[in-house]
Amino acid sequence: MLRRWAYAVIPFLLLAAISLVLYAVVMDIRTTSRPARTEPPDMATAKRDTIFVGVVSRFAPSLIYEGYQPTIDYLNASTPYHFALRLGRSYEETIKQLDRGEIHLAFVGTYVYVKERQHYPIRCILRPRNRQHQPYFRSVLVTRADSPIAGPGDLGGKRLALPSPLSFSANWMLRAELPAHGLRPQDLGAVRHFDFHHTVIYEILSGRFDAGVVKDRVAEEFLDKGIRIVSASPPIPGSPLIVRSDLDSALVSAVREALLRIDARRPEYRRLLHDWDPEFIHGFAPAEDSDYDGADRVLVTGRDDL
Amino acid sequence: MRAGRSLKTRILLFLGGLTAVLMMVMLVSVLLRWRTLVLDTHRQKALAVAQTFASSLLDALIYQESRPLRDEEFLANHIHRFLVVNPDIKSLALYDPRGTPIFRSQLAETADLPEPFGHVSPLEEPLIRIYRSQALGWVIETTLFLRIHNREWGWLRMAFDAEPVRTQLRALFFLFYGLGVGFVLVLLGAAYLIVDRLTRSLRQLVEEMQQFDLERPLPTKLKPGDDEVGQLASSFNTLKDRLVQSRRQLLDAQRQIYHAEKLASIGRLAAGVAHEINNPLHGLKSCLFTIQEEAHNAEEVRRFASLADEAATRISNVVEKLLNFSRQKAQQRSAMDLNEVVDKALALLAYRIDKEKITIVKELDPALPTIYADAELLGQVVVNMLINSCDSMQEGGEIRISTSLSDNAHVRILIADTGCGIPEEHLDKIFDPFFTTKEDGRGTGLGLSVSLGIVEAHGGSIHVSSQVGVGTTFLVTLPIGAEP
Q1: Are B20 and A15 inside 8 Å of each other by CB?
Q2: H/E element holding B46?
Q3: Are A275 and B63 within 8 A, CB to CB?
Q4: pTM exceeding the 0.90 threshold for the entire prediction
Q5: By CB neighbour count within 10 A (0-12 exposed, 13-18 middle, 19+ buried), where does B479 fall?
């Protein structure tokens, strides 16, 4: 009789024990900690004087850093200096910071540089290359592929989307192309500026605007997505890296030498440039103030007579 | 049949055990997998919230360091606003790249959170861990390294309340447990019903087998069916009918054999009687004829009358023996010494034994117990056997006679001779009445029949073994018996 009771009770005791263990296993959700590495910080870097590079915060600051920090990392690794980004809320603020010595270098747009070099002691030292490895870009007038607009002369009464008022592309259209075709902004149906070149493209594709002006690099991304280029500017030097005119020449030389060393046609540099801002992924070319004289003239005449 | 070993119990135990084990393995596997998914979901959710906040925090940090006029409260306000709209975050702490706290929420200042790092060290991937803190309870802690490429801002540690995870897991555990137990019970119930239905027919079959009596066959209660049990019941019914029929045929055959044997015995008896009576009857007729022819010769008449009387006496003796065989003398049992019976029988035949130069080897057990039997009848048995032995030897020979204790309840008498022996084909007939191989006038064929009747009437038996040309051995076994 006792044996029979044991046979009947033991399975239940076993089941209860397994259930308790299982419950404990299910409810114990702790995970083992992964030991963190214990590398000391780079004190040598911390002790070096920081060279600030100004960038206009056109996007969220973290996105600006995503694009520009790799360039800073490269400079930190390739020169004896320690570089850091410094965001400015506007191009004017960045130019003033440069003028006050709060920053030492700055990435600015072509139009801003052409405009502000007349007022501040600044000079350009480098300019970006395009996909063809040439040190210029073009501003292009784009429409939807099915649009009847064939050129700037057809923009009368049409809605025109433009990038920032401080961009070369917007000023090329407003100050050179429209007058060249006998048009004024008020002759158009609507003119509106957007913060980003990509936004201009999206507005055209959505049909809210009939035409727009962007950099050729951006337009080429959408050629097979319903966008057509109907007009282009002459070659324009790209957004330059500028410095205060009296900046230590050794620093300038170090920066120029490091960035000019990059040859985007070589695989090892293509890997390096992969995370850089799209403006710089084809490398840099030397820049002189005179390189931008042509851009000045384009804004006035619509043509580069150089 | 013990219930613990019944087919039903074994099937249920096996099925129940197997089902329970399989269910347990399956449910535990699914439960653990589900648990992993729940934990992963909450970890991913915590990570997503942390990464989203880290992104905005990075913007705030960048803004803060880029503004010409530093707003010290900007960062704190940003974090506080985030904590207000995310109440499930129990603590939040921000460290600079050297591990120095920049901001710590109220709970984070007192919580016993283990340090995520010994020193400043970039993590390649976010660190997510779950543990129990004395101050905060169960938490999911995420540690993110705030960096963009090589630019480092520091560490963000966030502890999310993990108690809802445990609540969810607890509910999941009991849901699976209930499902498992319920499923096993339902399966066992269904199995019980099916097995009971199956074994009910078998139990009826077993009961019918146990109650089956060839002497009094009862009509069957089993219903033949299409399934295996039904076929078994049908086969059993057929087998039962065949057994009853075979039993009947066997009884008929036995009756026929008995009848045939009876007829054969009567035939042998009649032949024996006729043979035994016929000779003296012819002698008697011859004497009467002579007396009739020689009536004037008184001397001859007297002589043949005497012969006639002798023949009539022989006929009378035959008839008397026949009557004794059929009636059997009433037993008068009393305590007796078997050795004494043997000695008296030998003394009775002493003249013949000496005359025929037969050697007697006597091995009587002096410790033989007293038995309770009819001494006169047993003496007749021993005499009959000794006469048979003497008759089997032509000139001289040896008769060995012994008594001994067979077991605690029986004694035995062994009489072995060196006579001519009995052919094998006659061995099963020597106890038949009037069966004899002796020449005419030397035996009636009733001696061994009478002896077997006497011994069996005492509850004993006679075993005979013989080999032609070597001799014959009779072994008489008798029960010691009890005082009447």
Answers
A1: yes
A2: helix B7-66
A3: no
A4: no
A5: middle
Task: Say whether A22 and B66 touch across the interface (CB within 8 A).
Answer: no
CA–CA dist B289, B465 (Å, integer): 48
Calculate the dihedral angle through the C-alpha atoms of A169, A171, A173, A175, rounding to the nearest 10 degrees: -160
Cα A297 to its chain centre, rounded Å, is: 26
Nearest residue in A to B21, CA atom: A15
Q: Are A86 and A146 in contact (CB under 8 A)?
A: no
Residue-wise pLDDT tens digits, B31-89: 999 999 999 999 999 999 999 999 889 888 888 877 654 566 778 888 888 988 988 99
**Could you give the count of Cα atoms lying within 13 Å of B173 in the half-sphere of its Cβ?**
17
Q: How confident is the prediction along chain A (306 residues), in pLDDT tens digits per residue?
A: 677 788 778 878 888 898 899 999 999 999 865 544 445 445 445 556 889 999 987 778 888 899 999 999 999 999 999 999 998 888 888 999 999 999 999 999 999 999 999 999 999 999 999 999 999 999 999 999 999 999 999 999 999 999 999 999 999 999 999 999 999 999 999 999 998 899 999 999 999 999 999 999 999 999 999 999 999 999 999 999 999 999 999 999 999 999 999 999 998 888 889 889 988 999 999 999 999 998 888 776 654 443
Residues of A within 8 A of B68 (CB-CB) are 102
Report how far apart, in Å, the C-alpha atoms of A291 and of each of A107, A167, A170, A300 are.
16, 18, 20, 16
Q: How far is CA A147 from CA A177, A211, A222, B127, B198, in A?
A: 19, 9, 15, 53, 84
Residue B142's nearest CA partner among B204, B75, B183, B89 is: B89
Are A73 and B151 inside 8 Å of each other by CB? yes
Which residue in B5, B65, B150 has the most chain A C-beta atoms within 10 A of its own C-beta, making it the best mutation to test that interface? B150
Residue ranges of the alpha helices (H) in B67-162?
Answer: 72-85, 106-110
In angstroms, rounded to a whole number, what is the distance separating the alpha carbons of residues B314 and B305?
14
- Cα Rg of chain A, angstroms: 29
Question: Residue A287 is encoded by which pair of tokens?
Answer: 């820049």
Q: In the structure, how many helices (H) and strands (E) does chain A have?
A: 12, 13
- Burial group, residue B426, by CB count within 10 angstroms (0-12, 13-18, 19+): middle
Distance CA B411, CA A254 (A): 137
Q: How far apart are CA B415 and CA B476, in angstroms?
A: 8
Residues of B with CB below 8 A from A33's CB? 114, 127, 129, 131
User: Tokens 């992104």, residue?
Assistant: B55
Do residues B191 and B183 touch, judged by C-beta distance below 8 A? no
Which chain B residues have a beta carbon less than 8 Å from that of A26? 31-32, 35, 169-170, 172-173
CA-to-CA distance for B137 and B163, rounded, in angstroms? 8
- Closest residue to B130, CB basis, from A31, A39, A66: A31
Among A30, A62, A274, most B C-beta atoms within 10 A, so best to mutate, is A62
Taking an 8 Å cut-off on Cβ atoms, the answer to whether B151 and A37 are in contact is no
Q: CA B407: distance to chain centroid?
A: 33
Helix locations, A79-209, DSSP H: 91-100, 110-116, 168-172, 178-180, 197-206
Structure tokens at A293: 């004289």
Q: Is there a contact between A36 and B117 if contact means CB atoms under 8 Å apart? A: yes
Q: How far is A87 from chain B (nearest CA, A)?
A: 6
Scanning A132-235, the segments in alpha helix (DSSP H) are 168-172, 178-180, 197-206, 216-221
Q: What is the pLDDT of residues B78-120, one digit of tens each?
A: 888 898 898 899 889 888 888 788 888 866 655 555 554 444 4
Least CB–CB distance from A4: residue in B4, B97, B148: B4
Name the token pair of B459: 């509850």
